[in-house]
Amino acid sequence: MKDADIQRINELSRLARQRPLTEEEAAERARLRAAYIADVRASLQQQLDHTTIVYPDGSREKLQQKKTIQHSNYIQ
User: Fold this and answer.
1) Angle, CA of 39, 62 and 68, to the nearest 5°
2) Which domain covers residue 43, as residue numbers?
3) In a domain, 49, yes or no
4) How many separate domains does the chain show?
């Protein structure tokens, strides 16, 4: 995500505190926020994919993904 997109998200947030956003502004903010969240998730996933656990005996193991949790109030 470009710095200009992040600045636009911040600008729209400031505007939303001052006055109601127009439909176009609200849609733009939602689109930019979704793109930002997708970028953060992708970055975190990449970091976790390259994480290795080092045990005291010196052995190494790649971090494994846990099984998905099935709760009615769990937000994915």
Assistant:
1) 60
2) 3-62
3) yes
4) 1
